[in-house]
Amino acid sequence: MIGIFVTFNIKPSCLEQFMGASYGDAKGSVSNEPGCFRFDILKDQKISNRVHFYEVYKDQAAVEAHIKYPHYIKWRSEVKEFFENEPEITFMETAEFPIYSSVDLWVQQKNHMVNQIKS
Asked: Do 33 and 69 meet the contact criterion of CB atoms below 8 Å apart?
């Protein structure tokens, strides 16, 4: 499993548009990408125009496939002018603990998230 933590500093006048476009990317990622298990959008509590994404993918192939999906391409074209600077990206590997972070639990969570999106 590969985790990605991305930090964006968004131009304050573009924050609402950025968030709207990002919800579309998150929904598309979890709903349409078999290898995307999680996509959280988090607003910084102290810096109002800072947004973080936390994403979890099955493997490197799923990470590489993410940027080829139509929802990502659309998102990227919509938000490219909103950044104050280049996003900071941190790649992580999830620990393979048998209870907390097992592949089975990620798959179960994904199924639940997809069902919630469809509701």
From this structure: yes
pTM of the complete model: 0.81
Domains of the chain plus CATH, in order, are: 2-118 (3.30.70.100)
Cβ 106 vs Cβ 38: under 8 Å? yes
3-state secondary structure of 41: strand
Q: Which two tokens stand for residue 33?
A: 């990408």
For 88, counting Cβ atoms within 10 Å of its Cβ (0-12 exposed, 13-18 middle, 19+ buried), the class is exposed
Q: What ranges in 33-86 are assigned the alpha helix state H? A: 60-66, 70-79
pLDDT tens-digit map of 6-22? 999 999 999 999 999 99
